[in-house]
Amino acid sequence: MHRNRKESVTGFNGEFRFPVIAVFRCAIQPMVMLICCLVILPGCRSFRPSDGEGLFAHSDLLSTDKIRGPLERALHNEEDALSRGEKFSTAGRREVEVARKLFDDGKYPEAVKSYKKIANKYAESSIGEEAWFRLGESYYAMQQYPKAQDAYSKLFADYPSTKYVADASRRMFSIAKIWLEVSDPASGGQIKTVSQQTETDSDDSAKTLASPGDPSVRFGLIPNFFDKTRPLVDTRGRAREALKSIWLNDPTGPLADDALMLTASYHLRRGDYIEADRYFEILRDEYPDSPHLEKAFVLGAHVKQASYQGPMYDGTTLVSAENLKERTLSLFPDSEDRQQVREDLKKLYLQKAQRAWSRVEIYKRKDNPRAVAINCMQVITEFPDTSYAAMARQEIRQIDPALLRGLPGMSEFLESLPSLSIGPPAPKTSNSDQPVKSVSSPSGSKSPFRFPGF
């Protein structure tokens, strides 16, 4: 019986032993082979990529330089519009190929007709995006700059992430240059790209434009019926619109800071100091690495001072101009305009003194001797070396001390005053309520600073 039990157990084990061993061998053998490969192959020269031999003799097998994703291919214009996204019909492909052939052959009027149909038929598609860009390029080649600007603006509006943003921005900047050179003859030939990262078109197309003596150029509301290179009305306004489109739609592009600087300089030339200040401030805040930064500080401080209207108006601009000029001296110790900035700080000091003295005159007209005394004390304390301080000393001595009784520190202040007022004669202030322009130049009509290439 014991032998029979052993045989039955053996028979049971023999029945299931083979499948278990087979599974074990199938799992172990591949692992053993993999370990052998890892041990043997590193010694083979054919599998050592660092030697540049064997299977890796061609470095392209390991390089990822030429590998680009869909977005990167689109940004580098390496992907055909017909192969992106939508599946276009045979007729649609034929239309695009015909339009491209016309454009490449320089038949721009025919290309415009073809691309107009494509843009309307395939809106919000990759070939519709291409159509609007090629429309702008065709109009630009035909020197119909207003229509080119409209096409690029439509491209930016319908396709905010367009792959043609750099090329369209460059064209917009070129169009703005041409129109500003015509509408502002004083700046002709001086407008350029200071960032030196991207050169814009410098063709002679501006020479074909109308003479600056044309009334439609000088006065924006007079229609232009004959020159297709300029808009119907407001050439200057359309130029500023083109510049604004650049830094709004391509804020990280190489021409964004150039567009802002050109716009700010335009308003500065026109005497619109508030608008110039706004654009200089955007340039300082958003583009701290721009080559225009120094001029944005220098000219920005100048227009803040120039926008000050006088002691009867808000004095915030005086404080802002003073802070900005002090920052300019600190940030740009080698600036060529350093001496001019120091002179402007002295004028700001006098303007602040004039502003303090104006309050003395206000309370004097109101017959409030205690307020007059308080403001006189402020003028003498804060601006002691000015003519306004001398006038304040004379004024405060004429007040009856009995009226000043009870004012904190007034008796001690009166005792500290010199017995005789010594100082230069005070300027006449009978017209102090007139607006005082805070421009740095004596004439008040021209900036003493050099424009940065504009």
Can you describe this structure in just a few lines?
This protein has helices at about 1-40, 70-75, 90-105, 110-120, 125-140, 145-160, 165-185, 215-220, 235-250, 255-270, 275-285, 295-305, 315-330, 340-365, 370-380, 385-395, 410-415. With about 450 residues, it is mostly helical.
Features:
454 residues, mainly alpha, 17 helices, elongated, 57% helix
Provide a descriptive summary of the structure in words.
By secondary structure, the protein is mostly helical. The protein contains 17 helices and no strands. The chain has a domain at 356-409. Helix 6 packs antiparallel against helix 7 (165-183). The N and C termini lie far apart (115 Å).
Rg from C-alpha positions?
39 Å
User: Could you estimate the helical fraction of the residues in percent?
Assistant: 55-70%
Give unreliable regions as ranges. 5-18, 66-70, 185-200, 202-209, 421-445
Structural class: mainly alpha
Mean pLDDT level: 78
Query: In one word, what is the shape?
Result: elongated
Order of helices and strands: HHHHHHHHHHHHHHHHH
What topology does this entry show?
Blueprint: H1 2-40, H2 70-75, H3 90-104, H4 108-121, H5 126-141, H6 145-158, H7 165-183, H8 215-218, H9 235-249, H10 256-270, H11 273-286, H12 293-306, H13 316-331, H14 338-365, H15 369-382, H16 387-397, H17 410-416
Helix pairs in contact: 3-4, 4-5, 5-6, 6-7, 6-9, 7-9, 9-10, 10-11, 11-12, 12-13, 13-14, 14-15, 15-16
